[in-house]
Amino acid sequence: MSINANEAILEVRGVTKDYRLGKTVIHALRGIDFSVEAGDFVSIVGPSGCGKTTLLNIIGCIDKPSSGTVLLGGEDVAAFDDDREADARLERIGFIFQSFNLVAVLDARENIEFPLILAKVPKAERARRVDRLVELVGLGDFVGHKPDELSGGQRQRVAIARALVNRPSIVIADEPTANLDSATSTTIMEAMKRLNAEEKVTFIFSTHNELIEKYAKRVLTIRDGLITGERRLGGEKA
Amino acid sequence: MIPRLALLGALKHYKRSLVVIGAVAAACVVMISVGSLLNGITGSFYDSVIPNSGHVRIDDARVPGALNPLSLDLLIPDAEAKIAAIMALGDERIAKAEPLLSFGALIVEDTGADEPRNLPMRGMGLVPDTRFADNARFSMRSGEFLPRGEGIALSEAAARLVGAKLGGGVLVLVQDRGGQPWYERLAVTGIFGTESKDFDETTFYISEEKAAQMLDAAGSAREIRLMLKDRDQAEAVAKELEPVLNHGALGDASSAAFRILPWQTINASIFAILLFVKVLLGVIMGLFAVVAGTIIANTSLMSVMERLREFGTMRAIGLKARQLESMILLEGILLGAAGAAVGLALGSLVVALLSRGGIDLGGLMDSLGLSRYNRPRPDFWWYAFCAFAGLGVSAIATARAARTVRSMGVAESLAASA
Fold it and tell me: How far apart are the CA of A169 and the nearest CA of chain B, in angstroms?
């Protein structure tokens, strides 16, 4: 999907999310509004339990809001059935998880290639795209290794490559550096930053690490299910 | 990719896979063994009982109500003429018709002992080239079966009880048609041994000519047995012979009407018992299938629950719910196929081992006139059915796990093991 810069590729309007625990209702999100433009690099920050993951799941078509609207490329995702939601996750959204979430039985290269196979991309094109991403994220000789043979940083590079391989309009990263040491975290964030700058990939990532949030161009602060602040940064590490 | 993921998933979680394969294999082994056993019993029935009773039997209509079914008042007069008339009908379905003269007799030891042993038995008078009495004719232990119609054929058990040996003799005591006692010393020309103890201890064979002579019943027969080219035609042939024998040219106003019985009616009680045995064994097989299905269902469910995050991840990157369901189902089918293959191999081995010596089913089979040693018989279609059933049980049991995972949301799957 080709989207011009400064065009809102994601709009979140009045999104709420409630969870029921027996008779107790937990209001995880209580009316979230924001939009994301193509080529943006947005950080969502806030303490644990503030609703970051819930929000990312909703905008990533992994979960549904209790109320409100999420417009992805101008389309209301609430109208999507299961198959269209899966197609949106496959073609328009890339997801990077805190715990890497690689498919254990596939090697690094196959993990990266998996979304392309689901999207029925021809074999030669798959090989070309995977080779390019392997080079881009610096996986080098580790492409034949299974996830349990890779370090945390290498696994997250595989996850980033997998998220990018179908050329999504948005890549969502849920605390991508939470399970990594600071040196590896810096490497991963630098890689994401480079992809944003060079490939114009739109990133939305959550973190509660102040050092990491400073990689973003925009920082949205969430507290108790509400956006309590928004800052624009230069996009350079302070 | 989906078939490969299914295969890799099965290999990765090999312990649970082995449980599923084992459950399917065990169910297949039980089904194959029990089914082959049942096939052996049924086959034994067709092999033994039908050649003994004939496909169609004609006897006196008063037999069912008679106090003594072996009474000489219940013989068919002019049996040879009736057989000739039946054959003259030109019915191509009838391969052979024979008279048979059965009677009660006492076999007495003829060794010069002071107190000779005796044994009440049922004598069977047969034509020398009989097509019936297969179980004795084809299980001769020594001598021949009524060579040229001479002598008496006794079982090993009966010979032992009256001290008879091949080449020796026994006294056969009967009461003739006039009520007079008659005895004759007959040379033991053949000793047989079937696998039915009851049958062996109660039955001996002499020629039909000798029996008629001893009973003073020349030309008469206890029954006429028909052998058909196709046993499935028995009911139709019996139905068509009924008016011919009872009301047509062969009808004899001076004698009682005849019963014309197809083998299905003759062996109705055995059919009932076979049906009971089939139902019983079917229930056993069904229980095994249910147990195997339950084991597979629970194992599959545990297996997929352990992999929820992986499945959630796959869905988060674009795998559709139905593709995930197909993948889990395919994994179950692959494991079912592996289990069925193992089950087929083990089941065949078990059947081969059991077929060597046979299984002693004891008195029940004896009382049916069947061999007490049942030899399971392999049947290709039953094996194929068992394999497909094993596969089906595995697929159905896995479907529950697949549906459970499909019904879960992506976020729920991702959070399950987080």
Answer: 14
Beta carbons within 8 Å of A64's beta carbon, 6+ residues apart: A58, A78, B409
Q: With H, G, I as helix, E, B as strand and everything else as coil, classify residue B316.
A: helix
For tokens 């006294």, the residue is B171
Q: Rounded to an integer, what distance in angstroms lies between the CA atom of residue B415 and that of residue B402?
A: 18
pLDDT in tens, B34-45: 899 888 888 888
Amino acid, res. A128: R
Q: How confident is the model at residue B249 (pLDDT cuts 50, 70, 90)?
A: low
On whether the CB atoms of residues A47 and A225 are closer than 8 A, the answer is: no
pTM of the model: 0.75
* Chain CA centroid to CA B73, Å: 34
Cβ-count burial of A229 within 10 angstroms (0-12 exposed, 13-18 middle, 19+ buried)?
exposed
* Closest Cα in chain B, distance from residue A101 (Å): 6
Chain A CB contacts of B309 below 8 Å? 101
Contact A42, A59 (CB under 8 A): no
Q: How far is A60 from chain B (nearest CA, A)?
A: 8
Chain A from 93 to 112: CB within 8 A of any B CB: 94-95, 97, 99, 101-106
What are the tens digits of pLDDT across the range A130-188? 998 888 888 878 889 999 999 988 998 899 899 989 889 899 999 888 877 888 888 88
H and E: helices and strands count for chain A: 7, 10
Cβ partners under 8 Å of residue B57, min gap 6: B223, B224, B225, B226, B259, B260, B261, B263, B266
CA distances from A229 to A218, A233, A236, B246 (A): 11, 13, 20, 109
Are residues B321 and A82, on separate chains, in Cβ contact within 8 Å? yes
pLDDT in tens, B82-116: 899 899 888 999 999 999 999 999 999 988 888 88
The reply to whether A60 touches chain B by the CB within 8 Å rule is yes
Q: Determine whether B112 is exposed, middle or buried from the number of CB atoms within 10 Å of its CB (0-12, 13-18, 19+).
A: exposed
Q: B85: helix, coil or strand?
A: helix
Residue whose structure tokens are 């992506």: B410
Give the residue carrying structure tokens 């030309």.
Answer: B219
- Give chain A's mean pLDDT: 87
